[in-house]
Design brief:
The chain is mainly α. It folds into three domains: about 260 residues, Serine Threonine Protein Phosphatase 5, Tetratricopeptide repeat (Alpha Horseshoe); about 45 residues, no CATH class; about 80 residues, Serine Threonine Protein Phosphatase 5, Tetratricopeptide repeat (Alpha Horseshoe). The chain has 15 helices and eight strands. Helix 4 crosses helix 5 and helix 6 runs antiparallel to helix 7. It is globular. The chain starts with a helix and ends in a 29-residue tail after the last helix.
Length: about 450
Amino acid sequence: MKNLKYIISFLVLWFTLASCEISQLSDPNNPSSDLVNNPSISEIQNLVSGVESGMRESLANYYDVVNMIGREYWRFSGSDPRFTGDLLGKGSSSLDNNTFYLTNPYGARYRVIKNANLLITGINNTTAAISADQKSNAVGFAKTIKAYQYLLVLNQLYQNGIRIDVTDPDNLGPFRSYTDALTDIANLLNEANTDLNAGSETEFIFSLSAGFAGFDAPSTFAQFNRGLAARVALYRGNYGDALDLLDDSFLNLSGGLDVGPAHFFSISGADVTNVLFFPQNANGELRVVHPAFITDAAAGDTRVTSKTSLRNSPASLDELTGEYDFWAYKSQSDPIPIMRNEELILIYAEAKIQTDALGDGEDALNTVRNAASLGDLPAGLTKAQLITAMLNERRYSLFGEGHRWVDMRRYDRLGELPLDRPDDNVWVQFPRPANDEGE
């Protein structure tokens, strides 16, 4: 296979969100044409639930690869040496363009994008009794999800670029460069925001899972959209834009740090359990905190104790040894954050520092430090010192959430990540998948 059309042409819809009361389709792999030609409101609900549930597919693969390359934790697997070999650049190994750690998340993200495109088509074609504003709000939801999925793919492929135009699997658009793809994603988020703010509707015509509690209406989902747009602006180096976008996001400098939308998981029925959960002191299949995360931490930092757990005995594999389990998720039903207020505070801090409002930036950093039982940063730090401090606060506040590798890369500091064995490497990006190499 040489084209993405083979990845996205097989449509998969998921209908397993326990928090949404939705009906099953008789054949979810071959949905009725009414779903896109003239769906009912209940069928639109099925499409929305499928989009949201599909966002969780291969999520563990995505987080494992970006967190491992970022030296946040190691994924030990007794059955697959590629985790500690390929991903850590052991010896002469390299990233494979035709294996699970790339093709699985790549295909999963584009299937969600495909489903979101079908949702948009269905909403635009429906004759159900919904207003033009309600249609626009629903389209804004779908476009926001698409933008988020594109960004995850781009995080992996970086300068190799990604495809943005995949509406027609038989006539795909070209790979867009990293810079152009970020621009495309920003534009898509802006379009979505306009759609979300159309009219004065206070509710969507569909329900979302409990993971989006507090962000399940057009106005509040738009706040998530603006937060995501601020993240993109940060990646583009548009710090003034990031601050403007934060004004319309759910940023709250004195609010709860964990507020924000999340992936929902449940142990009930046929739903999916948290894909990053392993019990403490597991053997065989486990995630072990990188030792540097422990040794580099400031004394008393509660971000360490809340997200790691000292093992009864060290875990070792492939010349690597760690004493702490990755313990950010304490049960199979814990949500995995998509974006949290703590990240928005750190985006605010970075943007303020980069626009020379050093005092505001330092105050924001101190907000997250104080929440972690640490004192304020020393007074009088230079801009360069504050940038280093900001990256450190992001390291500990966002541990295991997929940011460290991206952050160090955008500041050209990948060389500062630790090498665990003499011949290890830190990768800059993933190759294009073998089944989608062509232009």
